[in-house]
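Subject: sequence -> structure tokens, single chain

Hey, anyone have a minute? Need the predicted structure for the following. Not urgent.
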Amino acid sequence: MGSACCCKEEVSNEMDRCEGIPVDKLAFSKQLQRLAEEWGDETALVDVSRDGSERAFSRRELFEAIEKVACHLNARNVQQGDFVVIALPNGYENVVATLASWQLGACCVFMSPKGTDEERNHIHALFERKLLISSWDCDEDDCVSGDDVRAWIEGDFPNGVEILPFFACEPSRAIPTGGSSGKPKLVVQKVRPAYCEMDLSAWTAMTGQTPWSKQLIPGSLFHNLYSNATYIGLFFGQTVYLMERFDEGQALELIEKHRIQFVGLAPTMMERMMRHPSFSSRNLESLEAVFHSGGPCPDKVKLAWIERIGAQKVYEMYGETEMVATTVIRGEEWLEHRGSVGRPYGCELQIRDDEGRVLPAGEVGEIFGKPAIGLSAKYVGPQSLKCEDGGFFSVGDLGWLDEEGYLYISDRRSDMIVTGGKNVYTAEVENAIFDYPGIIDAVVIGIPDQLWGLKVHAILEIEGPESEFSPDDLNEFLHTKLSGYKCPKTYEIVQDMPRNEMGKVRRRELIEQHLSGLSEHEHNAPA
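Reply:
Had a minute. Here:
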């Protein structure tokens, strides 16, 4: 099929001219073809179901499946620039459908297979889709199910066609998001499903990942973090272990069983794994790097992982779907700059006030980034990306820089609480609450109050019965760590936080629940 290479290093680094691709880029499907030709019997992907059963697919099987599905999509007239919605559960069919769409030059819109009808309708109103590949109930002509994809993979090549051209056109993906506005929009990333040596070196620097290794994917493929990790991993020649759904006990078991070397985790996943009874007993020596992103990580959670596997193996990456700014920090640096999310990588950072003036080190303001390659994303839907002089952009996050250029996140502007005329950063209060014994999870929100405008309210998951929880003791503890105006005025105990598939708390949903009155589980803090 393609030209042979004599070693794995050459396949990683060799560049080729494919139609629609610059000379220094290699199309995703072209790389997978080469891997299939040279190491076809090696395992490319292991599909891990919730019950623990596994389906393993070789590099040859993966490439052939992509070709078959691409042929079927081609027969449905999917072309360069078309929007193809991928809304399938984690699994082999999801990966193959995405790669086949990219092979034809389509832009994949990644959506949750569990989204509500209202959420789907809001997003679909923003663009014209060519095809929907989903597990949703749909009888329209432009709908394809996961069962259809599976049948295509298991069947013969249609019309005897085996190899299609390799396209790698931008944009390649679009991520639905509410962002700070709360209104649905698409972030269309103007990147190509093609890579060069510089791209892979950057991924190694940010995550610690290297080629020809084993990576665990514990999160949903519709999320930017796990989409990137999966497809870059396959391009790297890794063996990717894809979990159908995250389970902390199963994740720890898989790391030990398969000698996993790399895994990316959201902070909520790190916390759940840390609390699992087998965290201290499982053999995790195979891990070479654990990188986390997708939200603030409580200090005690990060310290537990550093103690468990070593600071040099823990990476943190801060960035936005809009690709405005990226920072990276390793565990050794974090111990010296506790709470930081790192220094800029591939961008410049500035902190600006409400008038757009650049602030000095130590002062909190809005975070602005200037990507070295320019802005690589655009919105479809409500615009919320702010632009300042010099090509600096912001999505509304607040933070500050220290004298050495390390970034510290204070909050999203939409999550900041103005109470009694003073600003309270919810992330700071939540981090303080996590230091109190017996707290499983904490979310701080602002709710209407006649005296304060908004009052600071803490929603908690706790260990043990609610009857043994003392808001007085927690309040006294917080007053030793925070100024009085930052401490919650009221506390509330819940059994389970409302979360999305990534484990992120649905903060806006919690706020809306409180607009109609106080919860029956709410406790007033001592005066």
